[in-house]
Amino acid sequence: MLDIQAQILARIQAADTIIIHRHVNPDPDALGAQGGLAAVLRTSYPTKTVYVVGSDPENLSWLATMQTIPDDTYRSALVIAVDTADTPRVSDARFATGAGLIKIDHHPNDDPYGELNWVVPEASSTSELIADLVAASNGQLQLTAEAARFLYAGIVGDTGRFLYDNTSPHTLQVAAELIRYDFDPTALNNRMNQITLAQGRLQGYVFDHLHITPAGAATVEIPLAVVQELGLDAGSVHAAVGTPGRLGNVVAWAIFVEQADAPYRVNLRSKGPIINELAKAHQGGGHPLAAGAKAQDRAEIDQITAELAAIVAKGTQHE
């Protein structure tokens, strides 16, 4: 067991109350790591009280349900934030009011908050790290079918069903161990791949309005009016994030989603060129090939568009 894993396990064993947070606008890995860790701890330590908190998972409510707890629950609680790179993205600001704070994540560690940080950017997902923690505990932590389902969902989500280059031999080994447990991975995969007719129409809108440079930089803006006309919520729009990447001539892309009460949300993805530094320059961050940012107005949209085109053009020149 790694020293940091041993320290985390010791803090967990010493705590009577544990509250697990994750990031806003959760994806399957955020919910998988959160729910998987909670299921493991509830089984391994039945006398402890374990909570999962955060905003409504919206279109992923079928995967996980959040709990509502009063402020004073934090007074003596150990808080664990999973899959959240920086403090502004932690869902529910009360995470900072506990008696202790641990960060478990696989994003670049630009904001090393908490007393203990276990951050492994090479890992496919935070769900993979939770599975590793269980495996390294020498039986102190117990995996269940419920926990395995959560963790498998998180790994599948963050690897794009094992399509992305963050899928390592170890990732596949972990996934193989998880599906030994009593849940239906085929049904889970089918549920994660499922979209509504409205989401399908949104993907059609993306294809119809996509602008692609000769080098393969693609951009599209999704107006709020389009989202509202389709009857979609903010979480459901995420179904279109990977859409441009299905085109063979697209190398990297940005999707600008207009928000009702905030700047544009910018989803950045790439098949090769590094784009998380671009995200950091625009109030965001993330993985080298998958990141998010914000655009305050049309001028910043144009700026990000130009910068993405330059990154892709530079990358193709070196091929």
From TrEMBL:
Pfam families: DHH, DHHA1. Residues 224-313 form the DHHA1 domain. It comes from the Bacteria. Residues 18-155 form the DDH domain. GO terms for molecular function: nucleic acid binding. This is Phosphoesterase, DHH family protein.
